[in-house]
Design brief:
Helix content: 25-40%
Largest sheet: 7 strands, mixed
Strand order of the largest sheet: 1-3-2-4-12-5-15
Number of helices: 19
Structural class: alpha/beta
CATH topology of the largest domain: D-Maltodextrin-Binding Protein, domain 2
CATH superfamily of the largest domain: Periplasmic binding protein-like II
Radius of gyration: 25 Å
CATH class of the largest domain: Alpha Beta
CATH architecture of the largest domain: 3-Layer(aba) Sandwich
Number of domains: 2
Length: about 575
């Protein structure tokens, strides 16, 4: 769908009128007048932008749409007005919007065909270097004189410019970013096990804090099932075949399920000794008949049905929000209550690693970003435009919206969404109607715009039941609790990797390890869990490792060595 958006600059003071307590569509929301006269301009920053004939900057943008389009929302309209003020020209943006899943599947195809728009959502990390070298994508470094705000996020990343720039100084994409001013180093998923709290409470049991306790808990719950004291089929289930069952356990054993940075070097998790020890443990759970035999084949719909109808009692591999959704989906008279507890600890490995720990302060997320066509007519304007999305005033607008309309400022200077958003049945959905990016339901501007983590946690993080040894049963949010309960030692080195500078051939060799080799390892690893392959048999393990390595056309060990030789740690 294409739609031309155009708006002049509105002057005056900010007002709110004609708004209902809860919006129902973006069109129900009146766009307030905002005085942009105190906001920055490119001229204020010393940028000398070329004159545009007719004074109108015309842009085509290929962007990903998420659950709800930003088209027609209050924040999207104000984003364009603010951009016009900053650049000093009228702008006409033609947005080519594609659903996120479809966008990703076509993204590299369009790049390979040199069929991209002036500005584009991007999500394939260093793969863009190949198209930069071929002059399909603009070298942003050639226009550094028009960049001011982006450097705050570059400097805030542990590896600094080594993340943003290639060894030759080139930059082919603006990297996605986040402002985590509260330094919440929590994670989104694979940091906690989900338990049937109703069953535990009714039988004077609690979630496990150690792996030994977890083994005993599984035995106790199976005994209850066998005695018909609990109506369930199995103790353990998986949330979806899209993630291997062992994804919930790899952090406990200080390994990972793919290529990862282990703190000192790149390693391939599925062939490590720690990974084998994990498989031995899981094989023991399977042999004891604790694990649902469909753990490797049931899709998300089947898993949701199992969880909401009481077919299992523990799920170790799941996304945040899943536990609450299963409770909500259960019949009212079932008494089913799912809740969360942090990963159980094994003394051999120490505090379990959690996946996806946020960096503190302003930092970059090198997977996603924005690219610009190398043949764009006015690259100076487009570079300045995207850079402005990293400014505090724009990230506040995009994430929080408008003061007095979507958020209020507290006495200590912090921001809070208004009650009509926070008290809605779904704060994320309600805030998305205004076009706030913190909703995670809607992405405003040119995605990916830096997200404000405090705003995101307020409206997008689901409140779910939690348990800890110190606090007992309570309600909490996944991001907050995974930080609080895990602590600094829980931050996986995989989430703070070295910068690896690769050319296109080297990038391909690396991607084979994270796709072909990982895919093969996953299928074979499941056989070790079920006993089809004997995980205690050294010969069987060595044959597995050799087979994993043989899946890539490049020499596996040489690829690992190449990655380490090309890695930079600031």
């Amino acid at each position: 769908m294409k739609k031309r958006l155009f708006a002049g600059i509105l002057a005056g003071t900010m007002v709110m009128s004609g708004m209902s307590a809860f919006a129902t569509t973006p069109q129900d929301i009146e766009v307030p007048e905002v005085d942009f006269s105190t906001w920055a301009t490119a001229a204020d920053n010393g940028f000398e932008l070329p004159e545009i004939e007719g004074g109108v900057l015309k842009i085509e943008a290929n962007i990903a749409d998420f659950n709800q389009s930003s088209d027609g929302t209050m924040v999207q309209t104000l984003w364009e007005q603010a951009m016009e003020h900053y650049l000093g020209v009228d702008i006409e943006v033609t947005f080519n919007r594609t659903a996120w899943a479809d966008y990703r599947s076509n993204e590299l195809i369009l790049l390979a065909a040199d069929d991209i728009a002036d500005i584009n959502t991007y999500s394939y990390k260093e793969a863009v270097n190949e198209y930069g070298e071929d002059e399909v994508v603009l070298n942003i470094a050639d226009y550094q004189d028009y960049i001011k705000y982006y450097w705050d996020y570059v400097d805030g990343h542990p590896n600094g410019e080594a993340v943003a720039k290639n060894p030759d100084g080139s930059m082919y994409y603006f990297i996605d970013a986040i402002n985590n001013a509260d330094d919440i180093m929590g994670a989104q998923s694979f940091t906690a096990f989900a338990y049937r709290f109703d069953v535990l409470k009714n039988n004077d049991l609690t979630p496990a804090t150690t792996l030994d306790e977890f083994t005993q808990l599984c035995a106790d719950l199976k005994a209850l099932i066998d005695a018909d004291a609990v109506d369930a089929d199995y103790v353990l289930m998986n949330s979806t075949k899209d993630y291997a069952f062992y994804r919930g356990f790899v952090g406990i054993f200080h390994t990972w399920d793919t290529l990862y940075w282990n703190g000192t070097e790149w390693a391939f998790g599925p062939i490590e000794d720690n990974f084998r020890e994990m498989l031995k443990y899981l094989n023991g759970l399977y042999e004891a008949e604790y694990i649902d035999p469909e753990f490797g084949t049931a899709d998300g719909n089947a898993a949701n049905e199992k969880a909401s109808t009481g077919k299992a009692l523990i799920c170790p591999t799941l996304w945040s929000g899943s536990a609450q959704s299963w409770t909500t989906a259960a019949a009212e008279d079932s008494g089913i209550e799912w809740g969360l507890a942090y990963l159980p600890k094994d003394d051999t490995y120490g505090t379990p690693w959690k996946w996806g720990s946020k960096l503190p302060g302003k930092s970059l997320n090198p997977q996603m970003g924005i690219i610009i066509d190398a043949d764009v007519e006015y690259p100076e304007y487009l570079v300045a435009m995207i850079d402005y999305q990293y400014s505090d005033e724009m990230t506040t607008l995009i994430n929080w919206g408008v003061e007095g309309v979507t958020y209020e400022t507290n006495e200590d200077g912090t921001l809070t969404f208004v009650d009509s958003i926070l008290n809605a049945d779904s704060p994320a959905t309600e805030s998305a109607l205004y076009g706030t990016a913190a909703s995670c339901v809607c992405r405003t501007g040119i995605p990916f715009v830096p997200q404000n983590f405090s705003a995101l946690v307020q409206v997008s993080a689901t409140t779910e039941p939690w348990w800890s040894a110190d606090d007992g049963y309570y309600d909490g949010k996944y991001w907050i609790e995974s930080d609080r309960l895990g602590g600094v030692d829980s931050v996986s080195p995989f989430d703070r990797p070295a910068v690896t500078n690769l050319d296109s051939d080297q990038s391909t060799a690396k991607s084979n390890l994270t796709s072909v080799c990982e895919g093969y390892a996953r299928g074979e690893a499941l056989k070790f869990i079920t006993g089809e392959l004997d995980v205690e048999d050294d010969a069987a393990w060595e044959a597995y490792v050799a087979a994993v390595k043989s899946q890539t056309d490049e020499d596996f060990d040489e690829t690992i060595a190449m990655l380490n030789e090309n890695s930079v740690v600031e």
